[in-house]
Amino acid sequence: MTKPATDTIDLSQEQRTELEAAAFRTLVQHLRTRKDVQNIDLMNLAGFCRNCLSKWYKAAADDMGLALSAEQAREEIYGMPYAEWKAKYQKEATPQQQAAFDNAKKH
């Protein structure tokens, strides 16, 4: 018999960290394969984008005392230098996308 989904599971901190890291790696890989999804769309729908992830990654490195530049963090998230990704895959925001982004910043 399986436990109901509402039961809590006792995880060690190491297990929790490993699960979180695996989920993060899966998210990053998913975003790398979905180059059609623009950062502005992510921002408008979810309130974060690839750039946010790279900033969080850099902040975590800083907290650990690791020397990681912002560009290195971006490359970890994008899977290539940011300038290359931007040139190949980033499209100009539509007026509707930009309006939604600007409107979200007001709230």
Automatic annotation (TrEMBL):
Gene3D superfamilies according to UniProt: SMc04008-like (1.10.3340.10)
Annotated SMc04008-like domain residues: 37-102
Top-rank taxon: Bacteria
InterPro entries per the UniProt record, alphabetical: SMc04008-like_domain, SMc04008-like_sf
Pfam families membership: DUF1244
Protein name: SMc04008-like domain-containing protein
Organism of this sequence: Pseudomonas panipatensis
